[in-house]
Structures are given as structure tokens and as C-alpha cells.
């Protein structure tokens, strides 16, 4: 058994010894490989270090080169700045020298001025002593002599300038106005407000009058219109200064005759209904007029006043038709001359709204219309154009002048206004009286249906220059004292005749 144990111990020792031998051999082989790997790593590391050194040297050289370039650029910049600074110093020195020179020259000029003033004062005193005239008297004499010397030349120059301006201005204005009139093709004749009611029969007249006149009195109280019943068969006349009331009465009578029930209670009911209908018609007329001429943004109050013009006439011309016709022409003219079309059209359409208010509001219609436009928030340009469409207010804008021209153009169209023979003759006499009111007038004639005043002056009292001034003065007085459609030509004639007889 001991042998077995010894054999086992020997076996174990042999195994351990083999293992130890094997481990030693393996460790020797690994060490050899590790040495080789270390050697290779060292080789590679040295190569990398060499490359890094080369690149570092290269970067250092590039940085040094770039720094040199920058230094050179900075040196150049410094040199340029130094040169500029030197130049600026030189210029400042020159400016200082010039300023000193100018100050010295100014002092010299001031001394010369004072010397000239003294010389002029002494000369003036000597001249006053020699001539025996004061400065003001000498100036008046000089002006008188100058005026006498150049008067003839001045007259010719004024005439030439006036003729040139008239030729060019009239030709251009005629083209624009004719173009506007050609494109505006509305009816010339205007409507008239109806003031007579035609009845179906004489029995209806009695029913309208009623028992003891109750019906007609109730109708007059409700409408404020005088109803005239005369012997004319089948006709009743309505009389009132207010055209709107007259329209309400006309519509009420038509509704009563159509219905057949005529008594005081029914009359009040029908008149109230007629007033509402006329109110709607007025508003609709104003809106239609604004829509027709292409104007938007007008306040409702102004549209209502505009609609009331449908029932008003001026010299037999319907005012609303006159306003819409003017607005069309004003738009055409404004486009031609470069004026504001919207302002021109709006002002032209509303220029006569002052005629819509009753006689209780005092003042001229263009002033009233301007105040109403201002009250309802319309622009200052529109207010001015409305107010300046007559000559008592100076037109300061192109739009105001266009409104004034279109007003005269619409009123002057043949047949637009119904003027009686008595009014025509009175206007002709008034034109001649205005011309005769000036001094130096020998005769005056209103010709061409009142479109021209021909004035013959006394040549010994009125010279050529005074004749030009006289024509302007007569035209200004006509504009300020008379009302007329269109324009009136003032033609002053000065003629000198020398007559001798050979015997």
C-alpha cells in the first residue's frame, strides 16, 4: 500500500513538473512575440513623430509667412494714413490761410461799402441842392419820365403778351370744353315742376272741395299748399313756394282721386302716406344721381338734400339734372387737365345743395352749401370748390375752377334756361349801364344776345394803356354786380381820326 501511495505521489509530481515545463515554454514564446510587437510599435511611433514634426515645421513656416504678409500690409496702411494725415495738415493750414485772407478782404469790402455810402450821401445832398428837389420828388419825376418814354413800348408788349396768352389758352380751353360737350350727350331741355292737377270730371272737383269746403281746407292744412279752384274745367292749381310740399299735395290728390274716399280723416292719412313716399323718392333720387356720376362716400344728409333738388328749378332748369350733367362734364375736364376727378365730381354734384334749404336759412346758396358740406364732415377741398363756384369767393384750386367753368357751361347751353324777353332786355340795358358808368366812354352797345359789350371811348381822354385797364375794370364790375350764364366779352374800341378837306 505504501508503494501505491509512493507511486501516486510520483505521478502527481510528474504531472506538476510537466505542467511547469509547458508553462515555461509558453511564456518564452509570448515574450518573443511581445518584443517584436514593441519593436514595431516603436518604429511606427518614431515615424508618426517625424511626420508630426514635419507638419509642425510646415505650419510654423506658413504662419510666419502669413504674419510677414500682414506686417507688410499694416506697414502700407500706416504709410497711407501717415500720408493722409500729412495732406490733411497741409489742407488745414491752407484753409486757415484762406480764412485769414477772406476776413481781411471782408474788412476791405466793408470799408469800401462805407466809403461808397458816404460818397452816395454826399452826391445826393449835392444833387438835391443843385436841383432843389428832395429824394422822393426826384424819384417821382424819374418815374414819370421813364413811364412817358416807355409807355408806347409797354403798351405794345402788354398787347402782345395778352394776344399770345389768349391764342394759346383759348385754343386749349376750346379743345377741352368741346371734347367734354361732345362726350356729354344728355338732354338739353329740363323738366318743370307740375303745379296743375287734371281731374277726371267736374264732380270730382266738388268732392275735393267737400261740404262747406271742409275737404279742401283739411287738405290745405295738412300739406301747407294753397289749392286754387277756378272756373277752368277739370283743373286744380297747387300754389306753394316749397316744391316738396307741392309734390306731397299732388301725390295726395292723385291717391285720393284714385281711392274715391275723400273726407278729413282720410285726407290726413293719405297726406302722411304721401309724405313718406316723397321722402323715399327724394332719397332714391339723391342715391341714383350719385350712382350715375360714379361718386361714393357722400353722407346721407347730403344725399337727401341732393334728392330734394329734383323738385327745384332755376331759370326753368331742373337743378338735379343740371348738377348731374355738370358732374359728367367736370369728370371729363378733370381727367384732361390732371385735376382730382373724385373731388371735382363730388363738388360739382353738390354745388347747388344750398338751393334745397328753405328761404328761412339766409345767405347765398353757395355759402349755405359749403356750410352744410363742412357740417357733415366733407373734405376742405370739396367745401372750397362748392363755395367758390360763384365769383364772390376766389377759387384757389384747380378743382374749384373746373366746377365754376362747368356751372357756366351747363347754364349757357341753348335751351337750358328759360329766360323771358323782359329779363333779357333788362340784362342788355344793365350791361350798357355798367359800361357807361366809367369815365371817357362815348357809346356802349350790348350785342350778340348779351354775350359781348362793345365800348367806344374818347381817344383824347383814354390812351391805349388805359383802354386795356378799362376793359379789365368793366369786366370786373360785370362779374361782381350781375348774374348771367356763360361769359361776356368786353371789347373796348379806341380810334383816332384826322380829317382835312382840300379846297
In terms of topology, how is this protein built?
Elements (H helix, E strand, L loop, with lengths): L1 H130 L3 H49 L12 E3 L3 H8 L4 H10 L2 E3 L6 E5 L3 H17 L4 H30 L6 H9 L4 E2 L2 E2 H19 L3 H9 L15 H11 L4 H8 L10 H15 L8 H16 L4 E7 L4 E6 L6 H18 L7 E5 L10
Parallel strand pairs: 7-8
Antiparallel strand pairs: 1-3, 2-3, 4-5, 6-7
Would you kindly provide a written description of the structure presented here, covering whatever features stand out?
The protein has 503 residues and is mainly alpha-helical. The protein is built from 14 helices and 8 strands. It has helices at residues 2-131, 135-183, 202-209, 214-223, 243-259, 264-293, 300-308, 319-337, 341-349, 365-375, 380-387, 398-412, 421-436, 464-481, and strands at 196-198, 226-228, 235-239, 313-314, 317-318, 441-447, 452-457, 489-493. The strands form 3 sheets. Strands 1-3-2 form a 3-stranded antiparallel sheet, covered by helices on one side. Strands 6-7-8 form a 3-stranded mixed sheet. A two-stranded antiparallel sheet has the order 4-5. α14 links the parallel β7 and β8. α6 packs parallel to α8, α10 packs antiparallel against α11 and α11 runs parallel beside α12. The longest helix has 130 residues, at 2-131. The radius of gyration is 54 Å and the shape is flat.
Amino acid at each position: 500500500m505504501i508503494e501505491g501511495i509512493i507511486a501516486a505521489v510520483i505521478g502527481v509530481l510528474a504531472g506538476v513538473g510537466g505542467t511547469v515545463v509547458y508553462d515555461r515554454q509558453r511564456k518564452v514564446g509570448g515574450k518573443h512575440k511581445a518584443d517584436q510587437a514593441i519593436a514595431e510599435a516603436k518604429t511606427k511611433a518614431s515615424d508618426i513623430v517625424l511626420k508630426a514634426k514635419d507638419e509642425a515645421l510646415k505650419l510654423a513656416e506658413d504662419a510666419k509667412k502669413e504674419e510677414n504678409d500682414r506686417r507688410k500690409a499694416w506697414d502700407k496702411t500706416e504709410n497711407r494714413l501717415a500720408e493722409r494725415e500729412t495732406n490733411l495738415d497741409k489742407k488745414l493750414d491752407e484753409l486757415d490761410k484762406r480764412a485769414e485772407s477772406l476776413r481781411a478782404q471782408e474788412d476791405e469790402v466793408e470799408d469800401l461799402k462805407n466809403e461808397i455810402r458816404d460818397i452816395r450821401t454826399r452826391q445826393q445832398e449835392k444833387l438835391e441842392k443843385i436841383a432843389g428837389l428832395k429824394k422822393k420828388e426826384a424819384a417821382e419825376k424819374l418815374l414819370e419820365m421813364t413811364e412817358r418814354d416807355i409807355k408806347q413800348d409797354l403798351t405794345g408788349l402788354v398787347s402782345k403778351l395778352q394776344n399770345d396768352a389768349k391764342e394759346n389758352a383759348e385754343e386749349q380751353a376750346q379743345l377741352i370744353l368741346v371734347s367734354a360737350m361732345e362726350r356729354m350727350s344728355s338732354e338739353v331741355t329740363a323738366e318743370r315742376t307740375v303745379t296743375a292737377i287734371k281731374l277726371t270730371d267736374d264732380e270730382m272737383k266738388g268732392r275735393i272741395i267737400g261740404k262747406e269746403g271742409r275737404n279742401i281746407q283739411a287738405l290745405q292744412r295738412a300739406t301747407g299748399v294753397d289749392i286754387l279752384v277756378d272756373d277752368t274745367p277739370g283743373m286744380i292749381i297747387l300754389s306753394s313756394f316749397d316744391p316738396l310740399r307741392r309734390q306731397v299735395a299732388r301725390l295726395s290728390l292723385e291717391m285720393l282721386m284714385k281711392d274715391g274716399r275723400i273726407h278729413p280723416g282720410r285726407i290726413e292719412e293719405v297726406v302722411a302716406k304721401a309724405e313718406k313716399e316723397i321722402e323715399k323718392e327724394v332719397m332714391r333720387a339723391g342715391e341714383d344721381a350719385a350712382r350715375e356720376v360714379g361718386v361714393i362716400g357722400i353722407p346721407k344728409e347730403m344725399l337727401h338734400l341732393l334728392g330734394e333738388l329734383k323738385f327745384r328749378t332755376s331759370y326753368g332748369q331742373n337743378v338735379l339734372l343740371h348738377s348731374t350733367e355738370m358732374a359728367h362734364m367736370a369728370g371729363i375736364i378733370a381727367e384732361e387737365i390732371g385735376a382730382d376727378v373724385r373731388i371735382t365730381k363730388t363738388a360739382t354734384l353738390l354745388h347747388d345743395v344750398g338751393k334745397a334749404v328753405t328761404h328761412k336759412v339766409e345767405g347765398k346758396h353757395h355759402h349755405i352749401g359749403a356750410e352744410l358740406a363742412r357740417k357733415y364732415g366733407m373734405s376742405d377741398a370739396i367745401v372750397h370748390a362748392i363755395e367758390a363756384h360763384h365769383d364772390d369767393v376766389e377759387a384757389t384750386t384747380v378743382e374749384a375752377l373746373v366746377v365754376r367753368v362747368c356751372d357756366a357751361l351747363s347754364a349757357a347751353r341753348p335751351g337750358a334756361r328759360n329766360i323771358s324777353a323782359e329779363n333779357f332786355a333788362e340784362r342788355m340795358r344793365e350791361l350798357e349801364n355798367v359800361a357807361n358808368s366809367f369815365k371817357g366812354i362815348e357809346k356802349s352797345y350790348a350785342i350778340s344776345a348779351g354775350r359781348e359789350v362793345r365800348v367806344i371811348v374818347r381817344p383824347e381822354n383814354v390812351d391805349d394803356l388805359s383802354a386795356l385797364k378799362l376793359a379789365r375794370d368793366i369786366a370786373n364790375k360785370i362779374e361782381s354786380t350781375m348774374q348771367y350764364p356763360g361769359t361776356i366779352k368786353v371789347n373796348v374800341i379806341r380810334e383816332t381820326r384826322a380829317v382835312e378837306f382840300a379846297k
